[in-house]
């Protein structure tokens, strides 16, 4: 592949104007003849190495790719499904039934996930108040999942979760993601929704999945608006 | 057809693309020959002019000759080619460090003509600086013709200077050392090899055209330990004379600058004064090589007082000629003053200790020259090699080194910058390769500009601003006027940190209230050394760049130093 002068500047992590000045000053093995720039890529690589300069594609391009993959709530929630009337009297029991129901997981990984969720609950409760809990493993589980998922579980009866405001929890969002970045991204979006009291009231009615998803979609729109300011 | 088209772009030929040393050597040969030729031409025309004017020597009005010459030379420089007076070497050094050695084509002949007028008519100045300028300009323009880059052009400028000095003195090593020590200021093999080749070419041209003659040949000297001890005194004397000459030159320049008269009239006044001195002490007139020759041969038959007076008079005459607008260099006057001082010193110690058998007075004259050249230029190597080559006297090398070293050191002690560099240092224009000032002067504001700032306006609520903070990568937010787009101030993240977690403030505060309006701004044309100085003085890490009240970006110390390091690596290693 033949590089352009602009790409050379990118490879060297330098502004184009600096590279052009270096060419003019004869500091870099690139010749100008008329409008063209003549250079040999391997010679340039060797030159950069001899001067301890970086000569590689900038990381920025890669991180941009990753950021583009950050998903919003709705697809994750759809992947995780909505469960109603989950049975159980205490935290462990509810989590167990919830994990049982999770789609797209093998039995082994379900057991593992249950253990890790419980471990996290023992650290501090994930009940964030207003009767909502967001259980998640302490470290992201990258090996099992390809995409993040959020399982929405409406409980049969509210249970004591040890939440921050001591209110019994009636709904859990089990949040599973493969990296911290995605986790934080989804968590911040989810907590934005839950902060809204009307939404919590709406959740208390234990809505069916379609109504729930359309409500979440509304919130997503608001969030996107704020993000793309 | 392609060959025809590409012959002017030799740098893009395949054999020169990876390594241009061969190309530089080739170019250096051409440049060396041309500048050598220029030196020979000046030398020949000086001789011709001297002989032509010699017939007029017996008229009473002969003292106005230097005045006419200086006035003509000044008029020529000022009105026809529009160049500054003086010797011009600082301009070359400045151009080498700042503009990659770009020099005007007319510089390659203008100084030759003007100095020929000044010196040929009897003005006290040397032909060396003019040929150095010519040589440098020839090198620069050959480089420009072949579209070479800055680094190659600088080397060719050095080649031109080396070729010129080599040719005029028939002294290849002195030319080479002078170009590197004084003009380029960087000892790198990439420079040294082409410059050495150019010296050889310049010397060869001069030998072909004028014959291989050593300028000041002499008898053999036998130097004893006593002489070497006595020479320490001479070194101090030459150092003092160098300082005096430097001061006199600058003093005269200042005086003539404060006189409200046209430049040619000032030059004429200076020349007239030189002419009057010349009536009593003809040794001060012209470049003075003839008198140097007689002094080295030991046939300069004048008493102590006359010789000492002549040395002083030469200093005054040189400052009158150059300081008042004549054109020429200080090389030859230095040689004359140096040899006069050597002679003075010899007479003096012979008077004090008549029983000691001192070495021939010619040897002292020779050492005095080395001391003065080294002291004036702060270039000990140039002084040593020049004297060794122009006298062909290798046996004096030991006292020569001592005199040069002491004279340079003493002069450096009193005047930290040499005569050539003093003006540049005062203006902050001395940018030697590999120095902080050089690296900073090569970088400029647009190269380190960061444009990914998010602009906000002064009526924005804190709530909206926090949403912007969320997606921004930077800590600084320029505030612009909503209607006009003018830059009003800047908000640093620290400014809003206290209110960041207080939702009541979100709708109560607009950005106009929080922003910092007394902010130091940078213009894209500002010097980075100045920008850094302001950053340090105000303890800033970032400064906004503003043109015509518009914010165009941010410069930060981190990016600047990152870029600075890369620049330093590319400029200094190898």
Can you walk through the features of this model?
The complex is a heterodimer of chains A (229) and B (574). Chain A is an alpha/beta fold and 229 residues long. Chain A has helices spanning 5-11, 16-25, 41-50, 59-68, 73-80, 91-101, 107-123, 180-195, 197-204, 209-227, and strands spanning 31-33, 36-38, 82-86, 127-129, 132-133, 149-159, 169-176. In chain A, the strands form two sheets. Chain A has a five-stranded mixed sheet, with helices on both faces. In chain A, strands 1-2 form a two-stranded antiparallel ribbon. With 574 residues, chain B is mostly helical. Helices cover 64% and strands 5% of the residues of chain B. In chain B, helix 8 (150-169) packs parallel to helix 10 (189-210), helix 11 (225-257) crosses helix 15 and helix 11 runs parallel beside helix 18 (397-414). The longest helix of chain B is centred in the N-terminal third of the chain and has 34 residues, at 21-54. At the A-B interface, helix 2 and strand 1 of A face helix 8, helix 21 and helix 26 of B.
């Amino acid at each position: 592949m033949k590089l352009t002068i602009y790409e050379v500047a990118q490879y060297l992590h330098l502004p184009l104007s600096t590279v052009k000045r270096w060419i003019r000053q004869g500091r870099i093995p690139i010749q100008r003849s008329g409008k063209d720039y003549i250079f040999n890529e391997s010679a340039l690589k060797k030159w950069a190495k001899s001067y301890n300069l970086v000569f590689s594609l900038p990381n920025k391009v890669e991180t941009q790719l990753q950021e583009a993959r950050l998903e919003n709530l709705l697809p994750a929630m759809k992947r995780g499904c909505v469960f109603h009337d989950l049975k159980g009297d205490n935290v462990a029991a509810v989590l167990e039934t919830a994990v049982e129901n999770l789609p797209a997981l093998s039995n082994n990984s379900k057991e593992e996930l249950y253990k890790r969720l419980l471990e996290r609950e023992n650290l501090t409760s994930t009940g964030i108040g207003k009767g909502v809990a967001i259980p998640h493993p302490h470290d992201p589980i990258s090996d099992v999942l390809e995409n993040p998922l959020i399982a929405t579980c409406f409980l049969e009866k509210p249970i004591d979760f040890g939440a921050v405001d001591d209110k019994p929890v009636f709904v859990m969002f089990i949040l599973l993601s493969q990296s911290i970045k995605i986790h934080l991204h989804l968590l911040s979006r989810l907590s934005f929704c839950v902060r809204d009291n009307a939404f919590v009231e709406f959740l208390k009615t234990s809505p069916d999945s379609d109504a729930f998803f359309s409500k979440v979609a509304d919130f997503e729109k608001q969030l996107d608006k704020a993000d793309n300011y | 057809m392609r060959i025809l088209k590409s012959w002017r772009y030799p740098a893009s030929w395949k054999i020169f693309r990876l390594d241009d040393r061969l190309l530089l050597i080739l170019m250096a040969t051409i440049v060396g020959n041309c500048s050598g030729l220029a030196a020979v031409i000046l030398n020949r025309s000086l001789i011709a002019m001297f002989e032509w004017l010699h017939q007029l020597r017996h008229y009473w009005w002969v003292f106005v000759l230097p005045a006419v010459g200086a006035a003509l030379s000044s008029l020529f420089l000022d009105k026809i080619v529009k160049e500054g007076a003086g010797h011009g070497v600082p301009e070359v050094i400045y151009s080498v460090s700042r503009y990659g050695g770009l020099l005007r084509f007319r510089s390659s002949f203008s100084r030759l003509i003007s100095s020929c007028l000044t010196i040929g008519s009897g003005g006290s100045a040397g032909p060396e600086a003019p040929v150095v300028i010519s040589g440098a300009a020839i090198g620069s323009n050959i480089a420009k013709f072949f579209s070479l880059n800055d680094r190659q052009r600088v080397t060719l400028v050095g080649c031109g200077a080396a070729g010129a000095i080599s040719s005029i003195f028939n002294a290849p090593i002195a030319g080479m050392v002078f170009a590197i020590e004084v003009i380029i200021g960087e000892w790198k093999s990439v420079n040294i090899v082409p410059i050495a080749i150019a010296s050889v070419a310049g010397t060869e041209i001069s030998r072909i055209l004028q014959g291989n003659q050593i300028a000041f040949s002499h008898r053999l000297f036998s130097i004893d330990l006593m002489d070497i001890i006595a020479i320490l005194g001479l070194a101090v004397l030459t150092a003092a004379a160098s300082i005096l000459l430097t001061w006199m030159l600058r003093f005269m320049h200042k005086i003539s600058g404060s006189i409200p008269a046209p430049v040619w009239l000032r030059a004429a006044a200076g020349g007239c004064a030189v002419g009057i001195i010349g009536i009593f002490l003809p040794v001060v007139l012209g470049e003075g090589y003839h008198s140097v020759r007689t002094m080295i041969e030991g046939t300069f038959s004048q008493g102590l007082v006359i010789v000492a007076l002549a040395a002083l008079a030469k200093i005054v005459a040189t400052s009158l000629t150059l300081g008042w607008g004549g054109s020429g260099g200080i090389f030859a006057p230095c040689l004359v003053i140096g040899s006069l001082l050597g002679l003075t010193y010899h007479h003096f110690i012979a008077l004090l200790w008549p029983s000691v058998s001192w070495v021939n007075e010619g040897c002292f004259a020779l050492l005095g020259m080395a001391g003065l050249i080294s002291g004036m230029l702060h270039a000990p190597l140039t002084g040593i090699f020049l004297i060794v080559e122009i006298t062909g006297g290798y046996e004096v090398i030991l006292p020569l080194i001592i005199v040069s070293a002491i004279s340079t050191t003493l002069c450096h002690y009193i005047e930290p910058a040499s005569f050539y560099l003093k003006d540049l240092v005062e203006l902050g224009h001395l940018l030697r390769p590999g120095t902080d000032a050089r690296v900073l002067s090569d970088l400029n504001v647009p190269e380190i500009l960061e444009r990914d700032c998010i602009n906000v306006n002064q009526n924005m609520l804190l709530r909206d601003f926090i949403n912007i903070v969320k997606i921004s990568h930077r800590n600084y937010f320029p505030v612009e006027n909503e209607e006009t787009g003018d830059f009003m101030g800047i908000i640093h993240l620290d400014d809003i940190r206290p209110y960041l977690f207080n939702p009541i403030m979100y709708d109560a505060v607009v950005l106009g209230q929080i922003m910092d309006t007394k902010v130091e701004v940078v213009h894209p044309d500002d010097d980075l050394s100045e920008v850094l100085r302001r950053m340090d003085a105000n303890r800033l890490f970032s400064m906004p760049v503003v043109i015509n009240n518009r914010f165009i970006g941010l410069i930060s110390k981190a990016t600047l130093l990152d870029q600075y390091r890369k620049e330093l690596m590319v400029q200094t290693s190898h």
